[in-house]
User: Which sequence fits this backbone?
């Protein structure tokens, strides 16, 4: 089991930046593939970005490429999401997710059902 706790959300103006953090407790953090998803009111949860457990492979949604960056500090058991050039359409509840399965294909990283563990979410609101 692993427990995930997100933080760093808030209210920011269009064009601003935020850095989300996801702190993990439980088993060895470095052995997990990690991802960020988001869900806006009235919409389904959507993929944002993911990183393989080795950290070598990164997967980004087209809507955030060039603006968002995922990173991890295994020594601190923490995953980060740096979000720049924020837009009102980025407004959502952002979730951190993890899976210990190491045999993922590329497409699997984009699917919410791939991930076994989820945080409670942190709200990001971008004002226009």
Assistant:
């Amino acid at each position: 089991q692993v427990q995930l706790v997100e933080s760093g959300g808030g209210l920011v103006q269009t064009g601003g930046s935020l850095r989300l953090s996801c702190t993990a407790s439980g088993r060895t953090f470095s052995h997990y593939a990690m991802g960020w998803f988001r869900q806006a009111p009235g919409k389904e949860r959507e993929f944002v970005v993911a990183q393989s457990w080795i950290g070598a492979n990164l997967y980004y949604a087209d809507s955030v490429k060039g603006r968002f960056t995922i990173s991890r500090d295994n020594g601190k058991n923490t995953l980060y999401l740096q979000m720049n050039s924020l837009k009102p359409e980025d407004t959502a509840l952002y979730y951190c997710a993890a899976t210990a399965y190491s045999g993922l294909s590329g497409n699997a990283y984009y699917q919410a059902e791939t991930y076994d563990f989820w945080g409670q979410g942190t709200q990001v609101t971008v004002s226009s």
Q: What stands out?
A: The two ends are 40 Å apart (CA to CA).
